[in-house]
Structure formats: C-alpha cells, structure tokens
Amino acid sequence: VEPSPTVPVFTLNAYGCQRRTPLLHHNNVLTDALLVLAENAEFNEDEGRSVAFKRAASVLKALPHTVRGMEELQGLPCLGGHSQRVIKEILEEGKSREVEATLQSQQFQAMKALTGIFGVGVKTADRWFREGLRQPSDVVDTGQKLNHTQEAGIRYYEDLNTPVTRAEADAIGQIVEEAVQAVLPGATITLTGGFRRGKPTGHDVDFLITHPEEGKEENLMPKVVSWLDDRGLLLYQKTTRNSYLEAKDGPARPPHNMDRFERCFSIFRLDRPHRRPEQQPQAGGECQAQVGGTLLGQGSEESRDWKAVRVDLVVTPASQFAFALLGWTGSQLFERELRRWAVHEKHMSLSSHALYDSTQNRYLRGSTEEEIFTHLGLEFVPPSERNA
Ligand code: DGT
Ligand code: MG
C-alpha cells in the first residue's frame, strides 16, 4: 500500500543502537502495554517473544510524535503482527484486551511479586507459583529453603522495591568514593546504568571503579568491601573474583554475556537524610547492621532511619574501562542491539571487556566510547539517548 501523501512518513533505522532514544517520549500508552506483554513473555521463558515486544516498544520510543493512526507506522522496523494488533486495538478502543487480561492474571501478578525478590529468578518464581505461592509472605509462611541472597531479598523486600532516587544514588556515590580513596588513592568511580542515561530513579545503583595505572586496580574489591563492611554500611554483599585468566574463549566472548570483572552485588544501608544533625549516629558508631526481627517486615517506616539500597560495584582495568562504561550504561536493549549489530553487520564481537574483529582477527583498542562507536561504524549516541 502506498503511504497517503497527507500522512507524515517517518522512518527509523532497524537497530536500536542506530537510533536516538530519549528518556521521555510521546508514546507511553503504547509502550507500557507492549512492555507488559514483553514482561509476561519473560515470565513464560519465551525470550524471542519478549525481545520482539521490547524492540517494537523501542521503535515507538524513538518517534518524535504521538502515534494516532496505524498509517503512521508504515515503513517502521520491528513492528511484528502481534505488536501491530495490540497497537491497533489501543488506538481504536483505548486499551488492549490482551494487556488488560495479562495485568489481571494471577500468574502475572504472582510472578511479578515473586521475581521482585532480590535473588529470585523466573525459574524459582515459576516453581513457587505452581506450588500455590503468590507473594513474598507465602514464601516465608511455607518455610521455603532460601539462599543468603534470597533471605536478604525477603528481609529488605519493601525497600528494594521502592525506586532509588538520584539523590540517594549520589549519596551512595559519596560513600563509595570515600571508600575507594581510602584504600587506593587515585582510583576513580563512575556512576553508570540508568542514572548515567538521565533516569531520575532506578532499581539499583551501578558503579565502575578503575585506576589510571593498569594493574593498580587488582584486588581492589575486597579492600573496598572490607572498608564498607567495617563501617556497618553493607547489609549484604557477594563478591565474584575476576576470571579473565580462566577464560578459554577470549575476553570478547564471555558466556551468557556475563562479564568477568571483579564484581560486588551488594545492599547498602543508607542513612536517611531528613533528620536533625544531633540525631545522626556517630561515624563508625554503629558497626552492626540493624536487621528486622522477623524475616519479612522491616518495621514501620518511622522506626527506621535508613533504607536498604541495591548497589553493583565493578572493578575494571584502565584498558577495558571504555568497554565497561559502554556495556554498563545500558539500556539493556541498547546493549543487546549493539552486540547484534556488531555480529551481524560488522563481523565483530563486543563485550564489556573488548571488541574483537573477526575479519582482521584482532582486538580493536578503544579508550573512549566514541572510539568504540567509530570502530563499529555507528554514529555516536550519547548516554541520554540510549534509552532504547
Ligand atoms: P535500573 O537499574 O533498573 O534503573 O536500570 P539500569 O539500566 O541501570 O539496569 P541495570 O542496573 O540492570 O543494568 C545496567 C546495565 O548494565 C544494563 O544495561 C546491562 C548491564 N548489565 C547488567 N548486568 C550485567 C552483567 O552481568 N554483565 C554485563 N556486562 N552487563 C550487565
Ligand atoms: Mg541500574
């Protein structure tokens, strides 16, 4: 069908990393709906379907106008038949029956609540759902066997499901900065993840730690963690060593896109700022983390003067910093699209460590994100436009 001349035809590139996707866009009604279906597909372990809905939503996020009719979608990439049916129904009826039914479904609601527990993935949540569990309190009441991560996830459930604000992220940044300077002067920390893309809130706070002199960063993580732990600032932490030496398949091809940096998954105990100075605890005065008496339930809001916040710390050698920065800034879909572009369009393999060119059989250096985009033959996309 020829596009009618009165319809503004707007075209977009096919890969999310070729487009600029701002945080605020014009099609939230449509993208929210498609992302519900994407999440539901994830709960059903249908990754292909989930990615298809996410790609469709991402295209709508990059449009400079609000979509009002199906004819405006002509020529746009990544809009499969299912996504188009959902969009059409919303444009015509105001809502999609499939999306409404999903939101109302017991399975979706339970999976959302159960995967909302830190340390609980889709597989565990699904097993619990089949056993009749619907919410975190059911997990406690039925005495499910939990690992340490999940125990922390249950204990701090409410806090960890309350968005982290930018102010809280900055407060955590000051603490991490102090810790890093204390154990390795000259090391630097960089806020990445959603906050670097300009998001006002996040589910966690992501930091990269490096030192300009290659090698100086080795064994830094245990020292940073001890410094924080000694001051009672960590409610939970799990550190994984770097594992480049064990790698047999080269740094650009880590399995399952998991990277091999020294990494610490943690939960910080962040003091709430809205107290009078005389109520502040003495520095270092409280060494033990306060833990709620019962497993589930953190006491009333007023009784606590701190908040549990998820923080990811990653230590990277200087030579890999730009790759790590690009890899950790996200969005998740933007990252996925970058890797897909690299493989399918450039015969390259991109990770948070390196970029390998299979045509030239060599690694390509990159000391800035801009250089990496150039190697990939892509126009540079600033972090604030990577909200694919
Ligand atoms: P948020 O925290 O939900 O507000 O949103 P983001 O965008 O900060 O998402 P997050 O914190 O899950 O991850 C930040 C970025 O880091 C994400 O785009 C993908 C990347 N990332 C997460 N986990 C890993 C990992 O294990 N390895 C690598 N290489 N990248 C990861
Ligand atoms: Mg994050």
Query: Counting H and I runs of at least 4 residues, what is the number of helices?
Result: 15
Bound molecules: 2'-deoxyguanosine-5'-triphosphate, magnesium ion
Distance between the first and last residues' Cα: 29 Å
Mean pLDDT: 90
Question: What's the quick description here?
Answer:
With 388 residues, the protein is of the alpha+beta class. It folds into four domains: 16-102, Orthogonal Bundle (DNA polymerase, domain 1); 106-145, DNA polymerase, domain 1; 164-292 and 301-321, Beta Polymerase, domain 2 (2-Layer Sandwich), CATH 3.30.460; 322-385, DNA polymerase, thumb domain (Beta Polymerase, domain 3, 2-Layer Sandwich), CATH 3.30.210.10. It contains 15 helices and ten strands.
Keywords:
388 residues; alpha+beta; DNA polymerase, domain 1; Beta Polymerase, domain 2; five-stranded mixed sheet; three-stranded antiparallel sheet; 39% helix; 13% strand; globular; binds 2'-deoxyguanosine-5'-triphosphate; binds magnesium ion
How would you characterize this protein structure?
With 388 residues, the chain is of the alpha+beta class. The protein folds into four domains: 16-102, DNA polymerase beta, N-terminal domain-like (DNA polymerase, domain 1, Orthogonal Bundle); 106-145, Orthogonal Bundle (DNA polymerase, domain 1); 164-292 and 301-321, Beta Polymerase, domain 2, CATH 3.30.460; 322-385, DNA polymerase, thumb domain (Beta Polymerase, domain 3). The protein is built from 15 helices and ten strands. It has helices at residues 28-43, 47-61, 81-93, 97-104, 106-115, 122-130, 136-141, 148-155, 157-160, 166-183, 193-196, 220-230, 321-329, 332-346, 369-375, and strands spanning 164-165, 188-191, 201-202, 205-210, 234-240, 262-271, 306-315, 348-350, 355-357, 362-364. The strands form three sheets. Strands 2-4-7-6-5 form a five-stranded mixed sheet, sandwiched between helices. The chain has a three-stranded antiparallel sheet with strand order 8-9-10. A two-stranded antiparallel ribbon has the order 1-3. α1 (28-43) crosses α4 (97-104) and α5 (106-115) crosses α6. The longest helix has 18 residues, at 166-183. Magnesium ion binds at residues 193-194, 202, 204, 206. Magnesium ion (MG) binds at residues 193-194, 202, 204, 206.
